[in-house]
């Protein structure tokens, strides 16, 4: 079954609104909606913000819902001029930029202890342009984080969930598709102000492009 793992209720709302809902329940503070979307059986797991929440949502999708593919959908921040506010991008590779075993293992920043490379490859939704993404448990305007993401890692987009879901899916051998709609771009003013201003545009894009997002 196709399962969406989404951080926030407001990000999940455009998906649930177009579903034929068969069940709606809570499990350990995860919000689980099951039904059909564009005639396909699917479910939505609303997991909460951050890497731990994202990982537990993905694991629930695998263990309890028997997901054979996962879609991580949500808004995210842009890091360079290759992305545009309100547009959707398919994530080809994701890394946890706040994970660092460099001093212990001598590996590149973001390299998980059980992997050899820092970026994990995702399945790609061919309907949208591809970009690389960095995930961390921080929402900020930190210059240090920006330089790590752009200069050290070469990421185009940042969020707080995707690479954690990618780690869970990699261990399970289940494909992860991630689509991110840009709510703010670094260097264009306060990240918080941009995010709040552009959310409605992002959700409208998500609603209008949902059939393409789900078509994997």
Give structural notes.
There is one protein chain. The chain is an alpha/beta fold. The protein has one domain: Rossmann fold, CATH 3.40.50. Helices cover 32% and strands 31% of the residues. The chain is built from 7 helices and 10 strands. It has a 5-stranded mixed β-barrel with strand order 5-9-8-6-10. Helix 1 packs parallel to helix 6 and helix 2 packs parallel to helix 5. It starts with a strand and ends with a helix. The model has no long low-confidence stretch (mean pLDDT 97).
Keyword list:
216 residues, 7 helices, Rossmann fold, alpha/beta, 32% helix, five-stranded mixed barrel
Tally the structural domains. Answer: 1
Q: What is the CA-CA span between the terminal residues?
A: 11 Å
Helix and strand composition category: alpha/beta
What fold name goes in the CATH topology slot? Rossmann fold
List the strand order in the largest sheet: 5-9-8-6-10
Mean pLDDT across all amino acids: 97
What's the overall geometry?
Answer: globular
Provide the CATH architecture: 3-Layer(aba) Sandwich
Task: Provide the helix percentage.
Answer: 25-40%
Q: Strand fraction band? A: 25-35%
Segments where pLDDT lies below 50 for 5+ residues?
A: none
Oligomer: single chain
Radius of gyration: 16 Å
Run of helices and strands: EHEEEHEEHEEHEHEHH
Described by strand count, sense and barrel closure, the largest sheet is: 5 strands, mixed, barrel
The H-level CATH homologous superfamily, spelled out, is: Nucleoside phosphorylase domain
How many helices does DSSP assign? 7
Task: State the CATH class.
Answer: Alpha Beta
Give the strand tally.
Answer: 10
């Amino acid at each position: 079954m196709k399962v969406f793992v989404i951080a926030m209720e407001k990000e999940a709302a455009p998906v649930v609104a177009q579903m034929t809902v068969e069940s709606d329940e809570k499990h350990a503070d995860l919000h689980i909606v099951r039904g059909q979307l564009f005639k396909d059986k699917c479910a939505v797991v609303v997991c909460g913000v951050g890497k731990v929440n994202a990982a537990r949502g993905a694991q629930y999708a695998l263990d309890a819902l028997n997901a054979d593919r996962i879609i991580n959908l949500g808004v995210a921040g842009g890091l360079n001029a290759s992305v545009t506010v309100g547009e959707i991008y398919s994530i080809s590779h994701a890394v946890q930029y706040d994970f660092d075993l460099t001093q212990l293992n001598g590996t590149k920043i973001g390299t998980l202890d059980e992997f050899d490379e820092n970026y994990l490859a995702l399945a790609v939704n061919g309907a949208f342009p591809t970009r690389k993404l960095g995930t961390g448990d921080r929402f900020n305007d930190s210059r240090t984080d920006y330089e790590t993401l752009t200069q050290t890692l070469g990421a185009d987009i940042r969020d707080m969930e995707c690479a954690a879901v990618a780690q869970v899916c990699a261990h399970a051998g289940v494909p992860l598709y991630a689509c991110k709609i840009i709510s703010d771009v670094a260097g264009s003013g306060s990240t918080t102000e941009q995010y709040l201003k552009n959310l409605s545009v992002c959700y409208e894009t998500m609603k209008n492009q949902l059939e393409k997002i789900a078509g994997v």
